[in-house]
Task: structure prediction
Amino acid sequence: MKLLLFIFALGFSIVFQAQNEVELKNFINKNSIAIRSIQKNMFTRNQLTYSDQFKELLKNQIVAVKQFMAHKEISCYYAFLVREESLTYMKKNNSESLEYYKITDRENTMMKSNPVNKIKLSANELQIIHHLDVLNPSNLDQFTLTVQ
Result:
């Protein structure tokens, strides 16, 4: 009987963990859409005033994607940074509906806490982002912004 309960609990936790992984993946991938929407808005307005914040969004998204497989909590933390900043920007500058980008209650349950270690990108990646022309949409294609 105890073995049966253990197997059931183990199976349940595996299914629950897999479901959370899919939700985090979807959350990160939705952030990629938000980033491209912000870039489109900046391009349409020919507005460079947000370029430094945009580059920070980009850095955080890259970290969220890179950490997805090995460190889910770190990935989740950086993904939330991206989404919250994206929403802030879009509320100020976007006339479209933001319903798609809003953080749902279910997504909020994924966020646990601040990771102790802050993740930094390589010097090469930071240089590329620093010199990035944020108004050129094709420039984002050189980065992996989604989880496959």
